[in-house]
Amino acid sequence: xxxxxxxxxxxxxxxxxxxxxxxxxxxxxxxxxxxxxxxxxxxxxxxxxxxxxxxxxxxxxxxxxxxxxxxxxxxxxxxxxxxxxxxxxxxxxxxxxxxxxxxxxxxxxxxxxxxxxxxxxxxxxxxxxxxxxxxxxxxxxxxxxxxxxxxxxxxxxxxxxxxxxxxxxxxxxxxxxxxxxxxxxxxxxxxxxxxxxxxxxxxxxxxxxxxxx
Length: 213
Fold this sequence. Notes:
Strand 11 and strand 12 form a beta hairpin. The protein is an alpha+beta fold. The strands form three sheets. A five-stranded antiparallel beta sheet has the order 1-2-3-4-5, covered by helices on one side. Strands 8, 9, 10, 11 and 12 form a five-stranded antiparallel beta sheet that branches. A two-stranded antiparallel ribbon has the order 6-7. The protein has five helices and twelve strands.
């Protein structure tokens, strides 16, 4: 399996060895009482998160989950520090970590945090994925021309003031693309302050599940 890539991250995660996967599987147990991490078939990758000291993102995937359970493009995700915190598509696990480990943002990592937050906090129709070019791994090969015509459009940090970091990014949510403006607060809260629809009814949706049902 290809490395799991998060929008706006410029480094690939580290893949755990079979022995490390076995140890992590013993720590996590069953996922939603349905799926289990296997040292033989699962790929588990670790990504350091620069804004939280000593905290890593852990992603577990397994092609057998699709075969056995029909879970297309599903992953288990955790924040690993002193304890494991399961990422389930809601914001409380991230805000809980922000409360325990004060984030340290700067011009170099705030966009990565934005990409991370949008990818792992889902709405009713899935994640709010930041896309920048047709080469992004999340963009499918059959993406319509209407979608590709809006790229490349790099996410950018516009300014920093007393409110926080003002950022702009192209966001793919459900079957639509938006040009969105965000403020990333110093405490890790993210506020969307503008949301301009650019294309809708694209005919493709993101398939990325964090919960096993």
